[in-house]
Amino acid sequence: MDPYVHGYAPRETQRLADQAAILRALLHDGVAFPPGSRVLEPGCGTGMQTAALLAGSRGIRVTAIDIDAAQLARARAALASESGVELVEGDLLAAPLAPASFDHAFVCFLLEHVPQPAAALAAVRRAVAPGGGIVVIEGDHGSCRFHPETAASRVVWEALSTCQRRLGGDPDIGRRLHGLLTSAGFTDVTVEPRLVYADAGRDALRDGFVRRIIVPMVQGARDQAIAARLVEPAAWNQGIAELLATADGDGAFCYTFFRARARNP
Question: Is residue 209 packed enough to be buried (19+ CB in 10 Å), middle (13-18) or exposed (0-12)?
Answer without folding.
Answer: buried
